[in-house]
Specification:
This protein is mainly beta. It has a single domain, classed as Lipid/polyisoprenoid-binding, YceI-like (Lipocalin), CATH 2.40.128. The protein has a 9-stranded antiparallel sheet, with no helix packed on it. Strand 4 and strand 5 form a beta hairpin. It starts with a helix and ends with a strand.
């Protein structure tokens, strides 16, 4: 019923293409505490079909742009990602499970591709001309062949929390 209501509210289009932009924030832990970095380069295009609830598209993040307010940490992060070889992380979106609130797709990071299903909330605004989204998920650096950085013998934990938020503007 929710989709039918949306369909009539957004009767101007059955499938809307959105130009997406936003940011990602990571939170990592090490023996001396937690820290985070922000990356404002989330960009991409998605198509959301209102009749089926199908979501498809591609969003990418420039891995050189992490800012933790600590230049040495940021250099270690760029080294870990080997940004000279793997500058971007990209999510190829293949669907959205409305029942579970999960975006489905394949994440390409550090030359490794893995299927993912991550929680994502969204709101349509301005009659569907704008969509806001937010999500939070965990990933293991080792799943992508990444070795967690260490400093003075203290290694960052393998598990990292990532939060994303942003908006899409209908094209």
């Amino acid at each position: 019923m929710r989709w039918l209501t949306l369909l009539f509210t957004l009767g101007w289009a059955l499938a809307a293409g959105y130009q997406v932009q936003g940011e990602a924030v990571y939170e990592a832990r090490a023996p001396l505490g937690a820290f985070q970095g922000v990356n404002p380069t989330l960009r991409g295009k998605v198509v959301f079909d209102l009749t089926t609830g199908q979501l498809q598209g591609r969003v990418c993040l420039d891995l050189t742009a992490w800012d933790s307010k600590e230049p040495l940490r940021d250099r270690h992060t760029r080294d870990m990602f080997q940004v000279d070889r793997y500058r971007e992380a990209c999510l190829e979106i293949t669907g959205y499970d409305a029942q579970k609130g999960l975006v489905l797709g394949t994440l390409s990071l550090h030359g490794v591709e893995r299927k993912v299903a991550w929680p994502l909330r969204y709101e349509l605004e301005e009659g569907g001309k704008r969509a806001r989204f937010a999500g939070e998920f965990e990933l293991l650096l080792s799943d992508f062949g990444l070795k967690a950085p260490s400093f003075m013998g203290m290694r960052v934990q393998d598990r990292v929390v990532v939060r994303v938020k942003g908006q899409g503007v209908a094209q």
